[in-house]
Amino acid sequence: MSTNGKLENYWNGARWWKFDFHAHTPASSDYGKGSSQLELGKLTPKEWLLAYMKAEIDCVAITDHNSGEWIDKLKSAYIEMKNNKEEGFREIYLFSYEAVIEIINSKGGIAIPAHIDQTPGLFTWVKMGIPSLEGLKLALLDGDLSIKRSDTYYENPNEQHSTNFIESITIEKSKYIGRNSPLELQLNPWMSSFIGGRGTGKSSLMEFVRLAMRRQDEIPNSLKEEFRKYSEVGNRKEKGLLTEDAKFSLVYKKNQTGYKINWALKSDQMHPIESFNGSEWVKEEGSIKDRFPISIYSQKQIYSFAENPKHLLDMISDQKQIGYKEWLDKKNILEANFFSYKNRLRELSLLLEKESALKGELSDVTKKISLLEEKGFQEILNEFQKRQNQSGYMDAWESNIFSLPEKIGILEEEIVPLSYPEEMIDEKDTTDVELLKMIQTFNSDLNKLKSLLITQKDQLTVSLQKWNDEKQNSIWFKKFQESIKQYEETLKELSTGSINAQDEFGKMFQIKHNLETSLQKIEFTKVECERVKRDIEKTLNEIVEHRKLLSTQRQNFLNEVFKTNQSVKIRLIPFGNKIDVESQLREILRMESGFEPIIGSMESNEGFIFDLYENGIDESKISNLKGKLLGLLEGKDFSAIGRYNQFKERILKLTSQSIDQLELYFPDDSLAIEYKNASGKYQPIEQGSPGQKTAALLSFVLSYGNDPIILDQPEDDLDNRLIYELIVKQLKESKSKRQIIVVTHNANIVVNGDSELVFCLSSNGQTCLSSQGCLQDKKIREEICSILEGGKDAFQLRYKRIEPHV
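The chain above was modelled as a monomer; its predicted structure follows.
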């Protein structure tokens, strides 16, 4: 077991050992072959041992021809080398034929050590704890579970485990665990099992791990009260299992680096994350939940998934393959854009509502001006009016066009080349080099586009300045100035008459000019309004497609997970969540109660919700429902149902925010879960017993992922057939991909699940570790048979001829 953050293959419990079952020494006349035989025969015991150590052989069976001459020599040389810490020394275990002979003779047999020809360099992988003859016997009885020949299995099985696993757990100062001295447990990267009687603290250990890994929020609401005791201080009144000084630590191996994850009730006592830099632990930052994935399930949690598939759907969404966080980020952006466009459309619509009133005012003003025009100044006034109209139109146009350089400048700032941290690209990696070239090419194109925009902006600025200069120096501008001058002189003449026309006429013309400018702006507003409507429609379509993408990603994940699972089927039903749809719809419509015949439910066989799900839900049904409700806002009717008018009045009172939320609403997906029953047929999980439901969902959670998983008493409510057929098989398949930590009272899970490490817990007021080891250890076998129900039966099922070895 590693204690310094560096990955080593010497961990607690069972591991794979390189075993040479047939090794000769110079004591055999045929030791060595060919021209070098004579030279090899001169090897000393130390040299012989060093050759095996260099080849990284762990165990050697010495099988010389009719001789045990070298056995004691090798043992003495080994002890001397170990004590002297000689260069090249590594641990190696020597097995002599004498022990084998003793066993054979005790059974009445005759032992004759014989030579077996074999290809040089072959060895056998044997899985056990500390090598021993007894462990070897059980491994050989185990067959493929514990024996792999190097000529048929070419990889190192010690490296066939997840790169993420929990190396150790330390509990200090909880009420019943580690109160007097810390309880430290060194785990195995494959499967570690915790056994013990009731009340020995097994579940408490797992819940403390949940606290340390910051996974409390994963407990369903229905179970939170029950689990509250694991995170609270206990006293005479409270049932909490912590003390004020409680603290927990886990060493989490991730990609061969050790990280220490700390939790303390007094949060200032320990830094949450530390990493080992080769000599010491140093502080790290980041989110524990995001950086160190783990799954923790109690049996009650698993059962709650069957009762409410929404929990299971959330668990699926949390998988990396789904990319739910990225999906949610994009969803939020799209919805924010939608809300922004809708608010802009409402602002524009308010401006458009003024068009009719403005036209009426313009008509009245025009008539008043006509009366004044009859005073004999028609030509001058017409010229003035014409030039004012032209000027007003150009003013409205210029207010838009002269803002374009600034808008282009904003766009220019938003064009940012793709950047990346230097450590992201390894210039020695051809794939990275190709990616780097792609990025550089695209950034070059992007910079060209940006330069083009800058050029265009500058050209536009020059053109606008040119326009302004030419306008100021144009004949038209002179005519415009003349019309103003003649108009003002006319007003002076009128002011000498019997009426004060200067005020009246100037006022009317100014009003007319303002009204015409406002109407011109409304024309531009209409154009912008159409553009915003197109943006709304485009964004809404993107939101719909993005929502469907989530269902597709979930279904693809399920297809991949269950392509080889013969016990459970899970099918996604897009938008199929019937449980929450009524409460969600009522929340949007601001109708917490009432109107049952109109809103309806699945039980009532009437109303919107029943229509939505009758004969299966799809996107068109959701669209039709929204169309009906939004149609009421436009004055459309759809039913003569009772209390319809009251319902319509409530709809008309909805805020714009509620209306927008209604447009974006989609029910969540649901899951159809089936499991294979005893007769071999699939049936809905709703029809299963509590045990069948739990077994089916346990099979699911073990079907995917490569991060550590903790199961707390998964066998509750399960019979041994379900445990063996659904759970044990899945455990053996899963542990090569992910670390499994299981708390159990069932011997089949430990024995036939092939647990590499077993912790036996007991309690005398404080949880203590009575023993630990692997299944080949006699003490562990005895503990399993005495603690776990059906222990001997489980061993007999696995080893067939186990009775003498239990």
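The longest helix spans residues 501-561.
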